């Protein structure tokens, strides 16, 4: 009984297989080659192809377009490049491509379309088409001296051709071939940011005082600001320094490797100071709120203990400083490239020197960031203190 059942199943499977093969053979009809003009054609042509082989070598132009089995598409290999950018972010809605307003990547992708590096129909999926990654994502109004992106594009372009279709506040400084496994985001182990502002923003609040240009900070105040800034070093929960993340979210845990406060320097008649920090990664508004907390303590609106509470208390948001003055210095890239220089870091330094962007030249950075004197952002920064004083009265 079992033998008869197995025989029946075998016969049924054979019948289904034969019927499927018949349908497949009837659908895959290959047209015969064009008839020859000569009746008595030789068995072998001058190119060494026999008549039997000719019947097998089907011309692709005779095959219907819906027969995908025979369609051969030429695969265009696009090498991977690392691109060095510099931009002033005051007129843009951050680095990331978005539909709410002009962003750095919106302008950059439009330039790629104009020079033929990106098809126009792929603008919405440009990141996937170009295999595009950025080393750091800057927020609205934030500038960058050395922003690195990785992408795959065809050869035959030049930097001047790209910059021709970019505004003056966005520049491509260099393009370098890299290994195919290079990724600007994952291979960037640390980011360095700097925040430049006038020293009178750190002055203890006094409503009767308004002579900003003549203010000069003393050494003790610089030391105090440096000590406040050093409290952020190490690994902490920065949930109160960003948005929509609570203390129990692991994303709020970030590590600050180093902090530094420069000596004051003059920019025209205004005395300026620079805060610099290096960390593995940063969240939305994190650096601006860190600077805002330093300003609040220096102006007498907060205490050292309140800073510690913002790192431990579940709900105690820190104040936010203006975006003007925040600058992406560079990202520490560990990628080993395949050409001239031993590391990407060496390449970036040389490119920056060639374009007169020096990391230790504060005046050149200020020209990129913009002027603080008599700006709306500075008024917003000090407006909160005036509102608090009016409420006290």
UniProtKB/TrEMBL annotation:
The signal sequence is 1-27
**What are the subcellular locations of this protein?**
Nucleus
InterPro entries membership: PsdUridine_synth_cat_dom_sf, PsdUridine_synth_TruA, PsdUridine_synth_TruA_a/b_dom, PsdUridine_synth_TruA_C, PUS1/PUS2-like, TruA/RsuA/RluB/E/F_N
- Highest taxon above the source species: Eukaryota
User: Which of this chain's residues are annotated to bind substrate?
Assistant: 193
Give GO cellular component annotations, separated by semicolons.
nucleus
Catalytic activities: uridine(38/39/40) in tRNA = pseudouridine(38/39/40) in tRNA; a uridine in mRNA = a pseudouridine in mRNA; a uridine in tRNA = a pseudouridine in tRNA
Alphabetical GO biological process terms: mRNA processing; mRNA pseudouridine synthesis; tRNA pseudouridine synthesis
Q: Which SUPFAM superfamilies match?
A: Pseudouridine synthase
Q: Provide the residue span(s) of the region labelled Disordered.
A: 31-51
The family classification in the record reads: Belongs to the tRNA pseudouridine synthase TruA family.
User: Know the name of this protein?
Assistant: Pseudouridylate synthase 1 homolog
* Taxonomic source organism: Thrips palmi
Please state the gene responsible for encoding this protein. Answer: LOC117641851
